[in-house]
UniProtKB/TrEMBL annotation:
This is Matrixin. Residues 34-44 have a biased composition (Basic residues). Residues 213-264 form the Peptidase M10 metallopeptidase domain. Gene3D superfamilies: Collagenase (Catalytic Domain). The chain crosses the membrane at residues 47-68. One of its GO terms (biological process) is proteolysis. Keywords: Hydrolase, Membrane, Metal-binding, Protease, Transmembrane, Transmembrane helix, Zinc. Residues 23-44 are annotated as: Disordered. GO terms for cellular component: extracellular matrix. InterPro entries: MetalloPept_cat_dom_sf, Pept_M10_metallopeptidase.
Length: 288
């Protein structure tokens, strides 16, 4: 920013950015009557005007730096002037003694997580092929749980027949909505064994700051078909979806079996204290 301001000073000295140049024809001036001469002088003074163009350029540069600066100074400046475009309420970080872990952290700072932009909705699309009949209710419950814990807002972009669970950024580097769907191990070999689902996100990096922009959730269709017949099946299916959504927003597995993000979870159906703390920290990041 200092470099750009110095360049503006140089241009101002060379070209006079603070004024509109008044161009006059070459040759002898034509005398004007006294009254018209006075009006002519006033018009020329008005044409010269204030230093608006230069100030406008400086203001635009400062506004750009102000809006996109991901550093602590940028955050404090935005807070000072009350500029915060986050879509949801800022969730307070609970004082818990649970365990949580972030899937990815920022370059050079292992304590700062990679997360989503809280000033943009997390868009998602669903492929319901192979899903249980009540998949909409199950998904809505999980999204509500994650949204309440993070403050992130989710945007439903409808259903689709897409099945590209691995690459959600197209050839023009445009992120696609998070894809949520059901598959078997023949289609997605990583679902083999005791894997109930897969979830994760992809980030883009700008100015050494990473932000998640898309992701995918793949749920085991055969397991969900079995759980749909069990007495406590709905609670277990929703817990699996919430667990995978936890991965999508930025949480990793933990070793504490009291947390929903426990790697081998078989009975926990609610978010634990560590889950809630980690989710709140993911949602408290600055707008990217």
């Amino acid at each position: 920013m200092e470099r750009r301001l110095r360049e503006l000073d140089r241009l101002d000295e060379q070209f006079g950015l603070g004024e509109h140049q008044v161009h006059r024809p070459v040759g002898a001036p034509i005398p004007l009557p006294r009254g018209r001469r006075a009006r002519k002088v006033r018009r020329e003074r008005k044409a010269r005007g204030p230093v608006v163009p230069g100030l406008l350029i400086v203001g635009l540069i400062m506004a750009g730096v102000f809006l996109v600066n991901p550093s602590d100074s940028g955050r404090r400046l935005r807070e000072l002037v009350g500029f915060d475009g986050r879509l949801g309420e800022l969730v307070g970080v609970p004082d818990g003694d649970g365990e949580y872990a972030f899937a990815t952290t920022q370059p050079g700072d292992p304590d700062e997580p990679v997360s989503w932009n809280p000033c943009r909705p997390i868009r998602y699309v669903v492929n319901p092929a192979g899903a249980p009949d009540n998949w909409e209710d199950l998904l809505a419950g999980s999204i509500t749980a994650i949204s309440d814990a993070t403050g992130f807002q989710f945007e439903d972009t409808g259903t689709s027949d897409e099945r590209d669970f691995d690459d959600r950024i197209d050839g023009l580097n445009r992120p696609q909505p998070v894809l949520i769907g059901w598959a078997d191990e023949e289609e997605v070999p990583r679902l083999a064994g005791n894997v109930a689902g897969l979830g994760g996100s992809t980030y883009l990096e700008r100015q050494r700051h990473r932000t998640y922009v898309t992701g995918a959730i793949t749920l085991d269709s055969e397991l969900f078909a079995e759980l749909a017949e069990e007495r406590n099946g709905d609670a277990l299916m929703q817990a699996i979806i919430t667990h995978e959504l936890g991965h999508v927003v930025g949480l990793d597995h933990v070793d504490d079996d009291n947390e929903l993000m426990y790697a081998d979870n078989v009975g926990q159906t609610e978010l634990g204290p560590g889950d809630l703390e980690g989710l709140a920290r993911l949602g408290s990041v600055d707008c990217a």
